[in-house]
Design goal:
The protein has about 150 residues and is mostly helical. It has six helices and no strands.
């Protein structure tokens, strides 16, 4: 038992050290791009779960939908922190308009945050028809930002 604990501790120290070295190899800008892409991926995981319920692909589960709506409301606030100066190039699909039309980008982000917060609040009530309507507003907020500020796959 002691030997397994020691082995686990050594492997953990090695992995933490390796992760620290890998992060140190990245520039602040590269890390910001990685952060925002990861944030969108996690947000998409929970959004997808709700989307499948709204579309009838999976059965509606009020508790699961409420949990996912609360997580999406929180997660919608994170990616914008990764749009720092110098992240307009590199491994990104971000359009230059994010920086040249910063006020519009902020408005789109604010809209997403507001609509996801409303969805999280409405999910507590469990009225699926009301929830579906609000989910459509969240979907529209996502699409608006994607249309304005995300490059299509080439």
């Amino acid at each position: 038992m002691v030997r397994q604990t020691l082995r686990f501790a050594l492997v953990s120290v090695f992995l933490v050290g390796f992760a620290g070295i890998a992060q140190a190899e990245m520039t602040r800008e590269e890390y910001a791009i990685k952060f925002r892409k990861s944030s969108y991926s996690v947000l998409g995981w929970y959004y997808g779960s709700m989307h499948r319920m709204v579309k009838g692909i999976t059965p509606y589960d009020q508790g699961l939908f409420q949990r996912d709506a609360e997580r999406v409301a929180f997660l919608s606030k994170l990616p914008k922190d990764g749009f720092i100066a110098g992240t307009d190039t590199g491994d990104t699909k971000a359009k230059p308009e994010i920086w040249s039309k910063a006020e519009l980008f902020k408005e789109d982000n604010d809209l997403l945050e507001n609509e996801t917060a409303k969805l999280a609040e409405l999910a507590k009530g469990g009225d699926f028809e009301v929830i579906k309507t609000q989910f459509g507003k969240v979907q529209k907020a996502c699409k608006t930002c994607h249309d304005d500020f995300k490059r299509r796959a080439e």
